[in-house]
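Review session, final week

We close the course with one last complete record, chosen because it touches almost every idea we covered. It is Methylglutaconyl-CoA hydratase, a protein from Tepidiforma thermophila with 210 residues. Go through it on your own first, then we will talk.
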Amino acid sequence: MPAIARLPLPPPGAPPGWLADALDALPEDARCLLVDADALAAAPAPSRAELLRLVLGRVPVIAWFEGTLAGAALDLALAADIRICGAAAAISGPSGWPGRLRLLAPAAADRLARGETLAAPDLYAAGLVSALLPAGGAAAEAGRLAAVVASRGPIALELAKEAIWRGLPQPLEQALRFETDLTMLLQTTKDRAEGVRAFLEKRPPAFTGE
């Protein structure tokens, strides 16, 4: 079964670079990374380079939270590919990564800059979370979704992440050309051939990441 990793909590007094160390220690067979954003409320602020490793890394990242995020915990959640929250969740205070927040949800970035707190329905309406669960349900939904993501082709997921996050700031025509280049690259992989065979044979695919 494909591995689902969890981002470990930094130890008390963790030095700068704790996130890079945690990412370096991820299992090679990890297909999805779960981030408990609530548990990172007291975490030291990661560097921009560390956050970009989450955004542009090969492994899809799912973050969930039930409480109010601010500071480093908010920035780590913004670095995730998918965010899930409970009904009592919120984000408050300016992000340490305003450019990322503005890229994801410009209107939400403006409200936070004015000192507003965004409640869970606001986050869902702005597209900052993909799912809004009853209070206490975010972790289970994140785990369920991680199992689905981990069952998909890892190369396809990695290239999809790259197409989205590197293409988003680009002009549309350039982003579409970049996406096409990545799609052509995907056609050369063994996983692509396995996906076609599995479809024709009406069985689940066995992706190997090759």
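Two points worth writing down before the exam:
The chain has a mean pLDDT of 85.
The first helix runs from residue 18 to 24.
Good luck, everyone.
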